[in-house]
Amino acid sequence: MALHSPQFGSGRFEQIISQFFLKSLHIILDSRIPSLRPHAHSGELASISRVRKSDKWFSLALGDRPTTLENLNFWHRNVMDPMIIDVILVHERPTYSAVDNLYPDSGSGASSETIIERWVVQYESLKTMVPQLGEGPTSYKKTYKKSIILLRSLYSTMRLLPAYRIFRKLSSSSQTYNFDLIYKVSSFSEPLLRIEEEAMKQYDFVPVEALPGRLCISVTYCPSLFGFSLEPSTLLPPQIITDYVGSPATDPLKVFPSAEKGSCATSFPSRGIQSPLSMSFERPHSWTSGLHRAAPFRQNQPLSGSPPTYRTPPMPCDYPSSPPDIYGHRTQNYRQPTHQKGMSFDEYQLSPPFSPSPSPSPSPSPSPPTYFSGGNPLQTRLRTESAPVSIPLPMTGRSSRYLTPNSSDPYRHSLPPMSPKSTKLDLFSQESPSGSRSFRKTDVSRAAELHCGSTNLHSGQKVVSVIKDSRDDSGRFSGLVSSSGSPRIGFSRSSSRLSFQDDFDDGDFSCPFAVDDVDMSNSRNRYLCFTPICPLFRVLDGKEALETTSQVFPMARKSQDAAVGYLVQMLRTAPPLRQDHGCYSSQSSKTEFEGEVGADSGFFMPRKTEDALEELRSYREMKNLLLSQSGTRVASEEQAKSTAFVG
Amino acid sequence: MNCEVCHLKELEVEHFEIREILRYSNSGDIYFFKHENESVDLVQCGDSELEKKIEEKIEQFIGWVEKHPNKKSQICLSFYEVKSKQATWFVNKTERLYWEQWYINLNVTQPPKAHSSKYQHPKVIVDPGESALEERSVRRTALEVSLREVLFQIIKFVNEKKDHIPSVPNHGGVSFPYEITIPSSSDSSFGMDMFKRMLQTGHPTMLS
């Protein structure tokens, strides 16, 4: 098409035609798609003061063009291709079919899409028309003038058709509806069904001559929309979640409190189906909005030589059926492994693993539940293989309640407030899967050390669990002590380092022994073997100690500050120590110790250098003993892990 | 230049709906207003001065309607070009060449009164409030349909006839020069208005 010839105004025609396409597209989308409108103009023309240069075309200022329009500039290249704009109404379809009955949780109806308007803007080339040479310079002016009138007529017509009422409803921010308007722009579209075409009316605008062709606009529209169930949505309005607990994708090891009904899938309120009271969760999660913003699951029509379909993110009022279906299905899949593995931890209310992306996307991007489900069996296997043992809660009053060595322990939040150091350990344990697994691996090895150390002791003998101190190396602060006189463990601490609650900021987690939580209510079988050199040990029953040692690795997460504080409390209220030649205990030193304990937060015990050196030697012996025993324990643990994974 | 005349379909409106009058001009000044029940949405013109002038004319028209109840009325919207005539000794005349005229026909009705009691069945209790509301709703729906038909009529007319439109004036205004007249505003002044118009311009039908 020779539009660039001088007799036609050196490309002016082409410029007018291309801008005509863009302006008509802008008018149509601006009057039909609420999400594309930057402001709620409510039908008003943009003020002249805000008119941009590009918006001055055809003396019709509409405001800023949506970015999607900028991407549809391929019509600039080939103005001969028609531009077909389908305005599609997404609405609920009543469930009358048997297929819908198979999925009772799909909501009140599946979403359905109906083309309610089809606009066709094209430049028809009239081959029979001979360009008038004498009208070259002024012909494009006439074309431009008539195009102005045509576009203004188009603008007015957009507001007279029935679809504009739907647009007005959607544009109102005060209410949400169970329908939405989307669009599709293409140069080729499938013909309408005969039934649809018969029910629709057509209106053709008078073409504008743009030599050697003409600009044409036509519309096929539904004259009445009463057949569609266009109702306000009954969904909960968007609300701010003040107690956001995170999603499994970001916080996978976090366990949510169990509901009274037990484990059940988080439900998303379908439109008009589920009331807030019937929801298992009292509050919505932040990821629910993403589901409602998911586009309907509809296969895009194949476009030949046309840009991809631009589908706006739907309003949070629609698309009820499929996302909840998928979510519910995934939740089931997600939960099955946990039940099958027979996890020992309490039932907990799972947060939806389906965490769609909030960005406009045709389909939600769910969080990968496989990780979480994979992680749980791992934990389960570890625990089962390592003889999961409950650790009594400190000062919680739950005498029969034992903490499972589970980072997702639902009662971990009820523990005493953690120290900063312990908090760091907790964070470390809730990191990415690799991080948590590495942590567990480390803890297992350390637990193995401790367990090995405990197994070397005489069974039934009272052993002392060691409080884990991340600051201290194993040489300085570790070991198990037996009341029967087996390897002594000396503990030496300087006074400045006895205030555990103060300095937990430095040092790595190097101590292999975890903090043990002791149930104060069940203290009759427990008593401390305190020595001036090992004040932080407590005596447990042999069985508990064996169980405890295997649970050491999760204790790293517990508050060492709290544990130390607890020990301090125990020391202050401890019964008289047992006389043991292995322990540095004497009435005088004990008295001094008690006096010192009551004085300050630390343990200030007068002693000689010789005693300190002796204590150091005993620590070294104990360290070597534990290391040798841990080597065998780690090997056994690793073997157990490998077999569990295989299983 | 031909003067295109368009007589729009008659709209039956109530007194309080007079203000909600739609006016189009094919120059691009589109006047829209919101119907009370927001069933018809229109676009406003961007010229405040134009709107002010229109409001004045509407008030004038309402005044006439109040003096002449239950009468059919008409509003004429004319677009013209200003041509300077040959100056004479006394008058430097300018000529208005009308190239388009729109006649908006209105039939202003009074609100129905309550039914007299003698026509009521003794056993039938009629709530005048509900019936009046229903009747009003029916009338409003019919007006909505009529208004849409009129608007489509305008769009169709505007699209079909474009050749007679002159060039857009460069005086900075947003529209062609226009004139709003109420031919039936005053029986006594009607003739004077017509005489004045004839002095200023020729008869529209004489223009070619």
UniProtKB/TrEMBL annotation, chain A:
Which terms in the GO cellular component ontology are assigned? Atg1/ULK1 kinase complex; cytosol; phagophore assembly site
What are the residue boundaries of the Autophagy-related protein 13 N-terminal domain, all occurrences included? 17-221
- Name the InterPro entries on file: ATG13, Atg13_N, HORMA_dom_sf
UniProt keyword terms in alphabetical order: Autophagy
Q: Where is this region: Disordered?
A: 295-332, 345-441
Q: Where is the composition biased (Polar residues)?
A: 298-309, 397-409
User: Single Gene Ontology BP term?
Assistant: mitophagy
Locate the compositionally biased regions of type Pro residues: 310-323, 353-369
Cell cycle as a keyword of this entry, yes or no, is no
Tell me, what's a Pfam family for it? Answer: ATG13
| This protein's name | Autophagy-related protein 13 N-terminal domain-containing protein
- Organism for this UniProt entry: Tetracentron sinense
Its lineage reads: Eukaryota, Viridiplantae, Streptophyta, Embryophyta, Tracheophyta
TrEMBL record, chain B:
Indicate whether Acetylation appears among the record's keywords.
no
| Gene Ontology CC annotation, any one | Atg1/ULK1 kinase complex
Q: Which GO terms describe its molecular function?
A: protein kinase binding
Q: Is Transmembrane helix there in the keyword field?
A: no
- What Pfam family does this protein match (any one)? ATG101
GO BP annotations of the record are: autophagosome assembly
Keywords recorded for this protein, A-Z: Autophagy
Family statement = Belongs to the ATG101 family.
Question: This protein is called what?
Answer: Autophagy-related protein 101
